[in-house]
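Open question from group meeting: does this chain pack into something compact, or does most of it stay loose? Before anyone orders reagents, we agreed to write out a predicted structure and look at it together. Recording both the input and the output here so the notebook holds the full record.
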Amino acid sequence: MILNNIKDQFNQQLINKCAELLNYKCDLIYTSIFDIKDKFTEENITHDIVLLCVRDQFYSCHGFESLTHNESSLIETVIYNVVIKHPSKTFIVFHEHIHNNNMYLEKSTNNVFFVHISGLVDDKEEYTQVLEVCDKNLLSQCVGISLNRNMRPHRLMLISYLHGKKLNNLIYTSATMINDTLDNDLMDIVSWDFSSSELFKEVCEDGFNYIKKNDKLFVSDEAYLLLENTRSIISFDNANNFDKKLRKLYNNSFVEIISETLYDAEFGLVTEKYLNSVYGKNIPIFIAVPGIVSYIRNLGFDVFDDIVDHTYDSILDPSKRMETAIQMNEHLFNMPNQTINKWKIANESGRFNNNITFARDKMYNYFENLALSQFKKILKNKCQKLI
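Structure tokens returned:
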């Protein structure tokens, strides 16, 4: 059994439970984007069943941006090359993505199966001790917030659109590491098809040009400890970051535009960015892959459908999805007093506290039961003869 560097105790313990069901008659391998090409291909696979945890790395293909249809990511390609060398082995892959039906591995092999885990459970021990934000500034006239660390193309489009629509005074927006993009034209960075949203493109370009002329709009305050002279994060401490740097921002905000890691991609995932909004008691608008709102709603979270128009969640076109998400909910920022009143009614009815209760307890039970049931189903249907 080989276990390298799983970064959270919850998922490590969960995968160990799966290994226990096999009486540890399996190889247990964790890979990351930093060692996938070297360490994984060197591993000596000795058992008939391989448990492979790849976490959130399937999207890593051409940099950090999207995967196109029928295109395999770097990690999928490396795994595929190992799988075809061991056609008699069964590979059970633990992954975070909310969609996996289009994965190249699933379509091109018959001995790879998927079990869903989640990044929402990272830092469970720390997050379950986080105190929710209680002292909201009910006089705030800037009720929106959008936190953007790494300037992936969709985040650059988002902050450009917010500035192009003159919403930057109504939405507190952060944009770490943006200076590296300002010597470019926006359309050299973002390769979307804007044929159905030319006006959206123009507004974004106007906003980006405004940002370039006012390059001190954003404070470059890195949230994590980085490897010297690189952008590589040495360690994540999201719960501590919430308390030290984000809590004061949540005190003054009521609606959050959550810019998730993936946007223009087939494989979506939910990260601590959503969890922060839960403990911050904010109403969420998601800049993420299609279907993410439905996924979170089905988990058991209240996504405040009576306050936010989430129809954008089903729109596949990335420019139209972003445009719709902001346009259909722009009134929440333009009318802060009404928005705060809606927030107060929701808060008094306990809806935010219900989400926090779910996040602290039931969410972990949900993901554990889901993973174990999927794993047992695979064993029953595909691997019984190997146990």
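Observations to bring back to the group:
The chain has two domains: 9-117, 125-360.
The CA atoms of residues 223 and 241 lie 7 Å apart.
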